[in-house]
Structures are given as C-alpha cells and as structure tokens.
Amino acid sequence: MNPLSPNQTRPRRSCLAVPGSSPRFLEKAQGLAADQVFLDLEDACAPLAKPEARHTIVKFLNEGDWGTKTRVVRINDWTTEWTYRDVVTVVEGAGQNLDCLMLPKVQDAQQVIALDLLLTQIEKAMGFEVGRIGIEAQIENARGLVNVDAIAAASPRLETIVFGPADFMASINMKSLVVGEQPPGYDADAYHYILMRILMAARAHDLQAIDGPYLQIRNVDGFRAVARRAAALGFDGKWVLHPGQIEAANEVFSPAQEDFDHAELILDAYAWHTSEAGGRKGSAMLGDEMIDEASRKMALVVSGKGRAAGMTRTSAFQPPED
Hints:
Number of helices: 13
Order of helices and strands: HEHEHEHEHEHHEHHEHEHHEEH
Helix content: 40-55%
C-alpha cells in the first residue's frame, strides 16, 4: 500500500447524507463542516420524487457553494429502472461540478465496470476530462462482501469502498433492528469480519474505507462509540445523517494532536538521519524510540490524515548536536 495514495488523502472523515429531493436540506448542507456530502437519489428519495430530484441536484451542484467538500451523488442501483437516467441527467448536467458517483448495493465487479463505461461515454460526448469523476462502491449484502476483492479492482475510478449496514444486516438475517449496534446473544463484535474484509480489499487497491450510518441520530455518544470501532481498525471516515454527528466524526477520524506531532517528528528525524549530514543511517534514535523505514511508513499515514484534516504541528525537529 502507498501511504500517500491520492485516494486515501482526500478527507472523508464525515460523509453527510443529503436527500436530493429537499432543497432546504441541500441549501443547509453547504454550510456544514462535513468533509464530504452525498446528494442522495436512492433511499432518501421516494420513487415518485426521483425524476425531479435529479434536476434539483444538478441545480445545487452548479449553483451552490460547496467549498472544499467532496461532492458525491448516490444514484440508484443497477437492479432498478432509474440508474441510467440518474447517471445521464446528473453527469451531463453537472459533471464538471461533481467529484464522484456512489453506486449502492454493488454485488460484483461487472456493475462497477458498467458504471465506468457509461461515465466514459458521457464524458467523451460532453467534452469532459475522461476518468476524472470517481466511483464509490457500497457493499450492502453477502454477495457483495464475498466479491469485494474483485469489486475493489474493477475500475481505476474507484476511490472508496463503503459499508452499508442496514441492508447488509437484513441480507444475512442478523437478529437486530438497531443499525450499527451489536445483535443480542453474541458477545463478540458481530461486525468485525465484515469491516476487516472491506478494509483489506480497500487497502490492497489503495482505496479508502468508509463505515456506514448510525441511525439513532440523537445518540451522539452511541455514534461516537461505533465510529471509534471503525477508526481503530483503520477506516477513514463514517456516514453522518444529522449535523450533530459531524463534529464527532471529524474528531474520531482525525489523529490526536500529539500523534500528529510525533508522526511529523519521525518524518523529519528519519529524513535527516538518512541524509549525508545525518550520517546516512538506516535506523536511528528519536528520544528513547528507534525509528527506521517502517516507522516512516507508519508516520506517513498519520501525517497524511492530519494534513488532510487541516492540522498544524506544534513542535519542530532539532538535529542532535555532535
């Protein structure tokens, strides 16, 4: 894995779901502190509202002020009658103001390839840069998880693999109605295998891994606990369904200040010690800690996430005196 892969350094600590059929929510979302917004044409839109919502999304992508947010539209999945028209309307209408499309309920690599081909045709027809619009693949059932390695390798457009817990829980008959919480009767973490499977596939292909939503939107402590589980494994971010979850997500998926400072010191110290001035050493001491190339790689991950989150260091490296 390349710790500085562009796909992994784009911040996605908080990925805000916004109903594509609600101008009020689309307006409000622009001023919130989420790293990413995804304007939803799938579950958040009633079937009768989807055609009009496509045009509403185009209007807000073109006319809204989204700042530095990653702009994503979640289309409907390929088993529906809405998918192709979602893609054509949104990309032809606002492709130059769109960063990614999110494809839900991905079950195999061919579904990602089909979206890639359709995007390429539209980009060529419209004179857009071919390949610039990325794809986020959402894993929401057992078949998708079994095929996640092939899905992660399906297209150079892929940027993230996203866990969709609600549909996934239903697909495997999990005994729980509380999305993201542990089912009764199982003392271990029922999501550990699922999350690790997604994470390994993502990292093997230099992609980000994003955890899905926590539906008890007023329970910020519960959200924070579930987010910490994913962050501890190495996930890059989590969906947020309510403005009250954004701050918690941004905090949980950012390095602690002392960890960011330490990572920056490791990078500076290793660069100096391996230089001519530092003696061209392959390993060296930073205080009481030995650092080497493996330390540098680990520090790059923490440093990259901190920089992407806009963090600044509070300490500086001083070469040791002879």
